[in-house]
Amino acid sequence: MKLLIVEDNTSMRRLIKNIVSDLADQIEECTDGADALALYEKHLPEWILMDVKMPRTDGITASQQIFDRYPQAKICMVTECADAKTRRAAVAAGARDYVLKDDLFHIRQVIAN
């Protein structure tokens, strides 16, 4: 399985990668939603693990850009934003699932199904 991790925090990106590394054959990473579409197009990962809050292009916007061009894309938002408004926006942008950063091991269940 190929994964793309889009997360601006280096420590969090490393933690996510460690949690899913045994499930993936290839893991690509970027630090901002602005780079996510190009990396998706280049590698066509099975799953994108996307943060919401990033400096240049947020995860909701990046997810919408990817989903508009690739409606088959599987996007899982990985965020500390637990509010219903952000969750609804993520789903509207094409996210298939939503994992809070205080429960990162749930990512394994999401991408294994």
Adjacency order of strands in the biggest sheet:
2-1-3-4-5
General form: globular
Q: What profile does the largest beta sheet have?
A: 5 strands, parallel
User: Superfamily at the CATH H level?
Assistant: Response regulator
CATH topology: Rossmann fold
For the record, the CATH class is: Alpha Beta
Model description:
The protein is 43% helix and 22% strand. The mean pLDDT is 96. It has one domain (2-98): Rossmann fold, CATH 3.40.50.2300. The protein is built from five helices and five strands; from the N terminus they run E-H-E-H-E-H-E-H-E-H. The chain is α/β, with parallel strands linked by helices. It has a five-stranded parallel sheet with strand order 2-1-3-4-5, sandwiched between helices. The termini are close together. Helix 2 (33-43) runs parallel beside helix 3 (59-69). The protein has helices spanning 10-20, 33-43, 59-69, 84-92, 106-112, and strands at 2-6, 26-30, 47-50, 75-79, 95-100.
Write a short abstract of this structure.
The protein is of the alpha/beta class and 113 residues long. It has helices spanning 10-20, 33-43, 59-69, 84-92, 106-112, and strands at residues 2-6, 26-30, 47-50, 75-79, 95-100.
Task: Give the helix/strand layout.
Blueprint: E1 2-6, H1 10-20, E2 26-30, H2 33-43, E3 47-50, H3 59-69, E4 75-79, H4 84-92, E5 95-100, H5 106-112
Parallel strand pairs: 1-2, 1-3, 3-4, 4-5
Helix pairs in contact: 2-3
Descriptors:
Rossmann fold, globular, 113 residues, 5 helices, 5 strands, alpha/beta
